[in-house]
Amino acid sequence: MVRTPTTQTLDVPGAVLHYDIRGELPERDAADRVLLLAGSPMDASGFVTLASHFEERAVVTYDPRGTGRSRRTDGTGELTPETHADDLHRLIDELGAGPVDIFASSGGAVNALKLVTEHPDDVRTLVAHEPPLATVVPDSDVVLAVCEDIYRTYQRAGSGPAMAKFIALTGRKGELAPSYLDEPSPSAADFGLPTEDDGARDDPLVGQNLRGCCGYVPDFEALANHPAKIIVAAGEESRGEFAARAAAALAHRLGTELAVFPSHHAGFLGGEYGMTGEPEAFARTLRDVLAARL
Q1: Closest CA to 18 of 68, 89, 81, 84
Q2: Any idea what DSSP says for residue 121?
Q3: How far apart are alpha carbons 102 and 112 in whole angstroms?
Q4: 74, 101 in Cβ contact below 8 A?
Q5: 4 within 8 A of 48, measured Cβ to Cβ
Q6: Is the dihedral of CA 203, 204, 208, 214 positive or negative?
Q7: Fewer CB in a 10 Å sphere around the end CB: N or C, the chain?
Q8: Helix (H, G, I), strand (E, B) or coil at 273
Q9: 109: closest CA among 279, 259, 276, 236?
Q10: If DSSP codes are grouped into helix, strand and coil, which group holds residue 289?
Q11: How far apart are CA 44 and CA 126, in angstroms?
């Protein structure tokens, strides 16, 4: 039976966060840790299937500020991993059940890396799944330039053309040559994206989080000496793609082995957003990885 979540809100500086609790929260420092599932800019709705595979423990999901139900009160400008990490810290403190285990994917993994750097007592285990860190890959300069181009395209032409460029970047296998920026721009129509500019400039991905997330530089020394166990992961089908390459580079810098999960960047999805990975196998791998830290 799928548990019905209890939804609550938390006022933080500049935003009102919405979060969902499945199960009973344990006492602080209890043996049974809360499992916090975090994405960015993906909101809690993307973790419904994954959460259903962990009915033996309390699971918390949330909508990052500016995404889903979590409305911003600080405007519509760009966000940083520092801001998101502070939000996560305040959420964990509000739960009163730390330290927690975190599975964080994509931009959520970047935010969680900042969280464990700033608040080491908040986290027992972090599984950082495919953090899109342009700063750690060998072709860093090119990837950062592409991200800048995507952001500027969004500001100039709207979400369709910008998202087409983003999809092309994330699906490309292998390192990017400098000539990548000279290639013809992909068509928004080819991806079923809008070709007309609606005038909005508050898109959670290309408008609010892209540059801050991909441009984040981890504190490698702090992460390597962190009391929590940090596991960097990537999907087996993602091999060669930007986020998976970044995960492999990060694991190497931390002196750890990359954990290989089933499927792709969104392998935990079970129909959310019309996409399906291998959620059952993904959850089984996540459970094994979390158990191995004991």
Answers
A1: 68
A2: G
A3: 8
A4: no
A5: no
A6: negative
A7: N
A8: helix
A9: 259
A10: helix
A11: 18
DSSP string spanning 52-120?
Answer: HT-TTS-EEEEEPTTSTT-EESS-SS---HHHHHHHHHHHHHHHT--SEEEEEETHHHHHHHHHHHH-G
pLDDT in tens, the chain (294 residues): 578 999 999 999 999 999 999 999 998 877 789 999 999 999 999 999 999 999 999 999 999 999 999 999 998 899 999 999 999 999 999 999 989 999 999 999 999 999 999 999 999 999 999 999 999 999 999 999 999 999 999 999 999 999 999 999 999 999 999 999 999 999 999 999 999 999 999 999 999 999 999 999 999 999 998 888 999 999 999 999 999 999 999 999 999 999 999 999 999 999 999 999 999 999 999 999 999 854
Please count the other Cβ atoms lying within 10 Å of the Cβ belonging to residue 272. Answer: 18
Beta bridge partners of 105: 129
How many angstroms separate the CA atoms of 136 and 36, rounded? 26
Instruction: Give Cα separations from 72 to 63, 94, 204 (angstroms).
Output: 11, 19, 11
Give the pair of three-digit tokens for residue 236: 């087996």
Between CA 163 and CA 182 the distance in angstroms is 18
Pairwise CA distance, residues 41 & 163, whole Å = 13
Strand partners, 11: 16
Separation CA 287–CA 60 (nearest Å): 16
Q: Which of 95, 152, 147, 149 shows the shortest CA–CA distance to 123?
A: 95
Catalogue all structural domains in the chain, each as residue range(s) with its CATH number: 6-133+216-292 (3.40.50.1820), 140-211 (no CATH)
Q: Which residues contact 66 (CB under 8 A, 6 or more apart)?
A: 15, 41, 72, 76, 79, 202, 204, 208, 209
